[in-house]
Amino acid sequence: MDLAARIGAEAPAKSWGQARDAARDAGEPLPAVARELADALGHALAEPLVALTDLPPFDTSAMDGWAVAGPGPWRLGGTGVLAGGRPEPLAEGTAVSIATGAELPPGPIAVLRSEHGEVEKSARILFDRAPSPPAPGRDVRPRGQECRSGEPLLPAGTTVTPAVLGLAAAAGYDRLVVHRRPTVELLVLGDELLDSGLPRSGAVRDALSPLLPPLLRCGGDVIGRRRIADDFELLHDAIRHSPADVVVTTGSTAAGPVDFLHAALAETGARLLVDSVAVRPGHPMLLAELPPAADGRNRRLVGLPGNPLAAVAGTVTLALPLLRRLSGRPDAEPRRVAVSVELLGHPRSTRLLPVLLRENAVAPLPFDGPAMLRGLALADGLAVVPPGGLPVGSTVDVLEVPRP
């Protein structure tokens, strides 16, 4: 029995759910680091975000107009209050112009909107033309309306989005403590791949080099992509010396004449965690634990099939769940959708089927073979069809294919 067959015999194919669970359990979130706000985008919070101040930090005007004290009419006094300025106290029966977001004078103050006031310029008297008199607190954003100092705002594990950056800055943060994102190196294997032009002389275009890095960046930082020829020593050296936390390979996962991945992993001293998954397309995918790097970092390898749709299936099954785990983020949950057209399944394996979502029901797309991308290019997601298929009237999980 050759090496690939021996390894396969020792590690029977896992179900699709078991494979995803194995990917999620294949590591722990990477260590926490403190980053400047601008550098924290896309990372996961390593600790809860807690307000460092009240928001707003003081009573502010919600409108352009006048801050008024007591019932009108009011005598206008002082200079107007702009955002960032410090107001003087207002005596009863007086008013001062104020801008949206400006701090209000102390006391029981209301804001009279600019469209509701009329000024007698010669006497500097402000008259109220509002439908009802402004009661104290009207059009005022009171201190602490959004949160109080010390209040939890977001839990650990939250992905830092632009909105999270804005909230953190408003709440008083200059830096955020986040999990380091895993680094990823993509190794595209095969002598038959072309970088440009039309397929010719038995060679085909490399569809995976432009396809996979944007998907992988949804879970980690892609630090490199290399083309590796069908050569055992070249592949072994590339895996052994990769600086990445996660190495992702394409092709060479089966037992063909130039499929050297299993042998290279064995020579490297890797431990297989997943070797083949009962899923179509993409069943010859694998996940391995590599020997630690020289600096002690744990390393993993995800082996994707070489066919494009099968490689995407491997990405959503193994690569993204692993990368999200390492980055401290929860894995994406499928969307439960009604089945309005019978979904044909494989007799023994889960099927990942490109589908459109129409009025919360799935519509399967053609061109769903392992080497095809035409269906995926139109798809809203991949329906997770269990063995045997699903009848009309049932429901199906739809897994989103990340869009950067």
TrEMBL record:
EC number: 2.10.1.1
Domain MoaB/Mog: 185-325
Pathway terms, separated by semicolons: Cofactor biosynthesis; molybdopterin biosynthesis
Region (Disordered), start-end ranges: 128-155
GO cellular component: cytosol
Cofactor annotation: Mg(2+)
Domain of life the protein comes from: Bacteria
GO molecular function: metal ion binding; molybdopterin molybdotransferase activity
GO biological process, one term: Mo-molybdopterin cofactor biosynthetic process
Keywords from the UniProt entry: Magnesium, Metal-binding, Molybdenum, Molybdenum cofactor biosynthesis, Transferase
Catalysed transformations (reactions): adenylyl-molybdopterin + molybdate = Mo-molybdopterin + AMP + H(+)
Compositionally biased residues, Basic and acidic residues: 138-149
Transmembrane parts of this sequence: none
Protein name, entry field: Molybdopterin molybdenumtransferase
Cross-referenced Gene3D superfamilies: MoaB/Mog-like domain, MoeA, C-terminal, domain IV, Molybdopterin biosynthesis moea protein, domain 2, Molybdopterin biosynthesis moea protein, domain 3
PANTHER family: GEPHYRIN, MOLYBDOPTERIN BIOSYNTHESIS PROTEIN
Pfam families: MoCF_biosynth (PF00994), MoeA_C (PF03454), MoeA_N (PF03453)
Family the UniProt entry places it in: Belongs to the MoeA family.
Protein purpose: Catalyzes the insertion of molybdate into adenylated molybdopterin with the concomitant release of AMP.
UniProt key word Magnesium: yes
Source species taxonomy: Bacteria, Bacillati, Actinomycetota, Actinomycetes, Pseudonocardiales
